[in-house]
Each structure stands twice: as C-alpha cells, then as structure tokens.
C-alpha cells in the first residue's frame, strides 16, 4: 500500500447511535453548508446510520440532548459552527462531535491567531498586516506590494476577499472585507501553484492525504469557481516536482498538529513559483463536503469512497473532555 493510499476501516453503523448532521446555520456560508450536510446525511443513511438533519438556525441546540442524540457530524461552515461555539455547546451537553475541539476550532477560524502560532513554530506563511481602515489598507499595499489579498479575518470560502493590484482598489476592498467581519487583514500574494491538503486522524494516527493542485480560470479561485462552476481544474495526482508533495504533506501535518487539531481538517498552501517554497494560508476545521469539495476528492484518490469517508469521520467523533459522561 502506497503512502497515499488509505484502507477503509470496518465500522458498525448501528454503534454510532442516533446521529445529528448539523447543517445550514447562520454564517455567510449557509448555502454551502446545506449542500455539505445533505450530502453527508445521504451518505450516512446509505451506510445504515440512524442519521437526522439538524439546522441550528431554526432549532435550539439544547434539543440535541432532549431528543437523545448520541453524536454529531458537524457540517457547518464559518462562524457559529466552525469557530468553537457549537463545539463548546456540545462539550457542555456531553455529545461527541466530529472535527477539532473548542480551542483548535476557535483559533483556526481566526486567520491572524493561526498565523501567529505558525510563525512562532517556524512554519512559513505569507507576510500580513491587520488593518482597521481604508487608509491602513493603502499603507499595507505600499508595504506588501502588488498583488495583495484583502480579506476578513474570521470568514471562509473566499467570502469578502479581494485581490488588489492597484492603490485605488484598496478602499473598496476594505469595505467589502469589513462588511463580513470588523477584523480585516492584508496578505502578501504568493504567485505560483495553489494546492490544498486534507488531514485525517488524531495525534500519531493523523496523516496527510494526497495533495490537490487547483487550476482556476485566470487564477481566480473565488466563491463562484469553488462551488458553482465546472471550469476549475483539480489535479490529483498533483503533478508537482519529485519530492515536493511529500514535503508539503509533512508541512501541513505539522500545521495541523501545532493547532492541536483532531479528526480532520484541510489546509490551503501556496507554492512560490520561483523558489518553490510552500506558504501556509489557512486551515479549515470543517471542510466542505459538496460535489465540488476537495476532501472527498483527495480521499477518493487515496481509495476511500465518499460514504466510507463520512462514516470514518463520524466514528472519530469525540470530546475535549473524554471523561465527561454522555447523558
């Protein structure tokens, strides 16, 4: 079995108990979350799991305990789902859930905090500035150069993101980003190959899946090209120079463990086209599971079907405080 191959583990679906798939929610990524969650739910039911859809936007989370759910598959994206808030509520109720715990989820949702930790651990990430006004955005453009990325600190799916190539674009870019989150950051743009790498597992069992190289129309991997068109190309095998995939997998695995993630996540990386140095952009602790999503694509390349991936993730559901009784 190659390093990029995964064998499906035998899991008893009935042992998963009554399962809630958390989907929808109140973030700007609600539409994508509904697609992810419905896909996961269908896969789990097909495998024989007693699965039920649960939308926190229309139901109080306390109903999970009252209705006797044994575990949750978190298919929420963005704030109020991927940021530690739902994880904390589930911890209080003692209901195991998929993905990283409270602290890891909260930190990973905050791109500035993530960068500060990675820098402290010696992991490369593009230069950045936090900005609080259009004037500070223009000053950051003078420092970081063109192109420059302007984006909300606590948002995902490229929502509110602008690639700035001229000074006169800075004001509108800041306005767009700050409309999503009062915390805004500017980031040096790394020209080169864009790749994404999922990680599955916890602790010493965690492993990086095959690297996916993303080739978007005109290099613009935005919200539309991520979820609603077929124009973006996803290359797996990634076709990177020899040895590069393994080095990037090792980098991402270290980034995952540095944030104390567990269960699964997906990291986005840019590779400098001239130096071939990889730079960590961010890590997603509740990645997409839609028909266009990248974790299922990478898992499939490693020999793990969508249905088996969903069941494997569900079986990994846990709590930060594992000694806490469920009930």
Automatic annotation (TrEMBL):
Gene field: ddl
Name this polypeptide is given: D-alanine--D-alanine ligase
Ion transport listed as a keyword: no
Reaction(s) catalysed (UniProt annotation): 2 D-alanine + ATP = D-alanyl-D-alanine + ADP + phosphate + H(+)
An example Gene Ontology CC term for this record: cytosol
Pfam families per record: Dala_Dala_lig_C (PF07478), Dala_Dala_lig_N (PF01820)
Cofactor notes: Binds 2 magnesium or manganese ions per subunit.
Main location: cytoplasm
PROSITE patterns assigned: ATP_GRASP, DALA_DALA_LIGASE_1, DALA_DALA_LIGASE_2
Database matches in NCBIfam families: D_ala_D_alaTIGR, PRK01372.1
Species the sequence originates in: Hydrogenophaga crassostreae
Lineage: Bacteria, Pseudomonadati, Pseudomonadota, Betaproteobacteria, Burkholderiales
Family of the protein in this entry: Belongs to the D-alanine--D-alanine ligase family.
EC number: 6.3.2.4
ATP-grasp domain segment(s): 115-315
